[in-house]
Specification:
Blueprint lengths: L10 E6 L13 E5 L4 E4 L5 H8 L7 E3 L11 H11 L5 E5 L1 H10 L8 E5 L5 E4 L2 E7 L7 E7 L2 E5 L18 E5 L16 H10 L4 E5 L7 H8 L6 E4 L5 E2 L2
Parallel strand pairs: 3-4, 4-5, 5-6, 10-11, 11-12, 12-13
Antiparallel strand pairs: 1-2, 1-14, 2-3, 7-8, 8-9, 9-10
The structure holds zinc ion (2 copies).
Length: about 250
C-alpha cells in the first residue's frame, strides 16, 4: 500500500555544482526541485543533461527556470532543446529567464523559444506558481541582471543565490527561507578583490542574518576545495552546512 504524500516533501537535488566552468566531477550550476507532484529544473549549466537524465526522465520536468545569462548557468539549453524537440518530441515546455538570457539562447538556437520551449521573460518582480511550487525572485549583486530564486511549497522554502557579490543578502526576499543553496566562488583572501561573488564566510554571515537553518555550498570553481569554503564559514553560521555534489538531495 502506498503511503500518502507528505505535503512538506519539497527537496532539491544537485545536478551540477561546479563554478565558472565544469570540473572532471561536476557540470556547472543546475538543480532539480521536486515535490510528489511537481518537477522543476533551475539553471542548466554546461554538461548538466548527463546527471539530469540520471535523476529524472526529461518528460517529467514541468518547467525550467534560469537565473541569468552567464554561460555557466544556461548553455545546456541548446542540448535540451534538441532533446525535447527531436528526441522525446515535447513542445511548449515552460521556460522562464531574464531578457538577456533569451537574447543569447535565441542567438544559438533561433527556434527554441518558439517550439520546444514556451518562453516567459522574468525579472525580480515576477511571481508565479508551477504545480505546488511558488516562485519569487530577488535581483542579486552581479554584473548582469541575475535573479536569486525562492521556491516555497507545503509551508517550507528553499532559495538559490544564483551568482552574487556581497551586497545581496537572502534577507532581500523579505520572507522566510529554510534552506539556501549559496554560491561560494571565492576563497576568503579574495573577498576584497572586487570580484562579483562571495566567500564561504560571507555566505555564512548572510545566511545567519536571514535566519536560515541549512546552508548548501555551491559554485566552487575546479581546482578549489569546497571543504575550505565550509571551513571558512567558521563561527559565522551555526546551522547545518552541506556541500553540493551531483546527485545529492537536500530537504528543508
Ligand atoms: Zn556562475
Ligand atoms: Zn554569473
Amino acid at each position: 500500500m502506498s503511503e500518502p504524500s507528505n505535503p512538506n516533501d519539497l527537496r532539491i537535488t544537485i545536478i551540477g555544482s561546479s563554478g565558472t566552468y565544469s570540473s572532471a566531477d561536476s557540470a556547472c550550476s543546475s538543480y532539480l526541485l521536486r515535490t510528489s507532484t511537481t518537477t522543476v529544473l533551475v539553471d542548466a549549466g554546461p554538461g548538466s543533461s548527463m546527471e539530469l537524465q540520471r535523476q529524472v526522465d526529461l518528460g517529467e520536468i514541468d518547467a525550467i527556470v534560469l537565473s541569468h545569462e552567464h554561460p555557466d548557468h544556461w548553455t545546456e539549453m541548446p542540448s535540451l532543446y534538441h532533446a525535447y524537440r527531436y528526441g522525446i518530441e515535447i513542445l511548449g515546455l515552460p521556460v522562464f529567464g531574464t531578457a538577456g538570457t533569451k537574447v543569447r539562447l535565441d542567438a544559438v538556437s533561433p527556434d527554441a523559444t518558439a517550439t520546444a520551449f514556451a518562453w516567459t521573460t522574468i525579472d525580480e518582480s515576477s511571481a508565479f506558481s508551477i504545480g505546488d511550487m511558488a516562485f519569487t525572485f530577488s535581483a542579486t549583486d552581479h554584473p548582469v541582471e541575475t535573479l536569486a530564486i525562492r521556491i516555497a511549497s507545503g509551508g517550507v522554502a528553499v532559495a538559490y543565490s544564483a551568482d552574487t557579490g556581497p551586497a545581496w543578502s537572502p534577507k532581500d526576499f523579505g520572507n522566510h527561507i529554510d534552506l539556501i543553496v549559496y554560491e561560494t566562488t571565492l576563497p576568503t583572501e579574495l573577498e576584497e578583490a572586487k570580484i562579483p561573488h562571495v566567500s564561504g564566510r560571507q555566505a555564512g554571515e548572510r545566511a545567519a542574518a536571514a535566519g536560515i537553518k541549512t546552508l548548501v555550498l555551491t559554485h566552487v570553481p575546479p581546482g578549489h576545495d569546497p571543504t575550505e569554503r565550509a571551513a571558512a564559514i567558521g563561527e559565522t553560521f551555526s546551522g547545518t552546512v552541506e556541500i553540493a555534489v551531483p546527485g545529492a538531495t537536500f530537504r528543508p
